[in-house]
Amino acid sequence: ERQLRAVHLMFDAGRSINPAVDLGQVEGAFLQGVGWVLSEEVLEDPTSGACLTPSTWSYKPPGIAELPAEFSVAMLRDSPLHVPKLQQLGAKGTGEPPLMLAAAVACALQDAVAAAWADREEDRPEQLPVLHLPATTASIKQALPPFLG
């Protein structure tokens, strides 16, 4: 089980042309990144290279269950990195850059895996298993200690 309980984002959109559009773009791109981190596993046939996950019956984009219970987005104001001469009317892109903010979800899951191993002194490996992305149920189970997996 994994659940996003709270997400608080801050994004630098420069001098926004339309703050409502920028807010929606940041929220949407972040949730797209959450899908990439948690569930969007594209499988291919090793022999033919054919896609084995061609539809949402087998390929799982994020749904309503992946929305965090508490989700807030703030836009950075008066950033010292604001260079108006380099951007159209001082605005910065908001369409895809926030996708990378979902890396925080991957880091939190890796920390949770490490915490699960913390009490396992007698059989803890020298190097903890890496949580492979997307962090599907199978991937998480593989990274956890045997008593939890």
TrEMBL record:
Gene Ontology molecular function: iron ion binding; oxidoreductase activity
Protein name: Aldehyde oxidase/xanthine dehydrogenase second molybdopterin binding domain-containing protein
Lineage summary: Eukaryota, Viridiplantae, Chlorophyta, core chlorophytes, Chlorophyceae
Domain Aldehyde oxidase/xanthine dehydrogenase second molybdopterin binding: 4-68
Keyword list, A-Z: Molybdenum
Taxonomy, superkingdom: Eukaryota
InterPro entries named in the record: Ald_Oxase/xanthine_DH-like, AldOxase/xan_DH_MoCoBD2, AldOxase/xan_DH_Mopterin-bd_sf
PANTHER family attached to this UniProt entry: ALDEHYDE OXIDASE 1-RELATED, XANTHINE DEHYDROGENASE
Protein species of origin: Tetradesmus obliquus (Green alga)
